[in-house]
C-alpha cells in the first residue's frame, strides 16, 4: 500500500499514516511519501516495533517504507 501525504499540513500525514498502519498484518509494508522527514513518526514506529527505511527522492520528498513486524 502507498500513501501519498505530500501537500498536507501536520499533523495530517502522521494521523493518516498511523491509521493505515493499524490495518497492516504482520510482515506487511506500508510506503508513505512525505514532503519532509517525519521525525516524530520515527519515534512512534520505534516504540511500536515497526521497521522503517527512508529514501530521499529526487523531487525533495521522502519515501518511507514501514514494515509491521
Automatic annotation (TrEMBL):
InterPro entries assigned to the protein according to its UniProt record, in alphabetical order: DUF2249, TusA-like_sf
Identification of the protein by name: DUF2249 domain-containing protein
Domain named DUF2249: residues: 3-68
Pfam families according to UniProt: DUF2249
Membrane-traversing stretches: none
Protein source organism: Geobacillus subterraneus
SUPFAM superfamilies in the cross-refs: SirA-like
UniProt lineage: Bacteria, Bacillati, Bacillota, Bacilli, Bacillales
